[in-house]
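Reading group handout, session on sequence-to-structure problems. Before we discuss, look at one worked example. The prompt was deliberately terse, the way you'd type it at a terminal:

> structure Tagatose 1,6-diphosphate aldolase GatY/KbaY

The input record follows.
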Amino acid sequence: ALVNTNKMLNQAKINGYAVGAFNIHNLETLKAVVKSASEMNSPVILQTTPGTIKHAGEDYIASIARTASEKYNIPIALHLDHGNSFELVVKCIRAGYTSVMIDASMLDYEKNVDTTRKVVEIAHAVGVSVEAELGSIAGVEDDLYLNDDKKSYTDPDTAVDFVKRTGIDSLAIAIGTAHGLYKGEVRLDFERLKEIRRLIDIPLVLHGASGVPDDLVKKAINLGINKINIATELKIPFANSIKEVFKQNPDESDPRKYLLNGEKSVEEVVKEKIKLFGCYDRA
Ligand code: 13P
Ligand code: ZN
Ligand code: NA
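And the output record:
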C-alpha cells in the first residue's frame, strides 16, 4: 500500500539524508521512478502537480501508483505537488494520495496560515501528511510563473510561527533555488538554511533542485534538507531520448519502442539522484 511521507522523511532527518520526490506525468515515468527506487532499495515519493492531474486524472495516477506500491517492497508515497486549492486537496485524498502540499505561499501570511491549517485538519484526520511553503520559489511550475523579483526567501522566525500555528509535517523553504534550469550561477543562502534548521524540527523540503550542482545539493542535505524535488531533470531526458528515436527512425510509430527509450533515460537520472541524496539502501 502507499504510505504517507512522515516515517520516510523523519528517518531521513534523523540520519542526515534526503528522500527524492520525483514529478511523474504518465505510466512510463512513474514506472521508471519506482523501478529505479526499488533497485536502489530506497524509499521514494511520486508527485504530480495540478497541471499533471488535469492532464492524466488523479484517479488514473492513484491507481497506477497503488499498483506499484503492491509490486515493490519499498515505501512509496503519492504526493500532490504545489496543491493550489482546498478542493483539489480533497479530491486527491479521496483518490488515494497519501501526502499533499498546499501551496498558499502567494497569499499574504495570515491567509497562508489559515489555508494551510484547514488542509492540515482534514488531511491529518485520514492519515495524510502535509507539506506547505513559506517564502516563494521563483521560476516556472505549470502555469505558474514567478518572476525573480517576486521571489522572497523564507524568514526563519516566521517559519517557527508558521509551523507552530499550522501543524504541518514538512516545510518547503525558499533559499535561492528556482523551478526549471538556471541561467547564471546557482547561489544558495546556506546561512538561512542553517538558521531555519536550528529553529525548526520538522523535515525541510528543497524545491527546484534540477540544475543545482551536486556539491551544493550535498551541502544542503548536510545542513538539514530531507526531501528534494526533481522535475525538469526528468522531463528533459525523457523528451530528448524520444526525439532521438524519431531522428534515427522518422517512421517509428510503436509507442512501446519510443516510450521505452524515454523510460530508460528517466531511470538513469533517478538512480543518480537517489545515490546523490544518500537515500540508497534506506528502504
Ligand atoms: P525542478 O523542475 O527545478 O526540478 O523543480 C521541481 C519542483 O520543485 C517540483 O515541485
Ligand atoms: Zn516546486
Ligand atoms: Na531548478
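Points for discussion. First: The chain has one domain: 6-232+266-276. Second: The pocket of 1,3-dihydroxyacetonephosphate (ligand 1) is lined by residues 23, 81-82, 141, 179-180, 207-210, 229-233 (CB under 6 Å).
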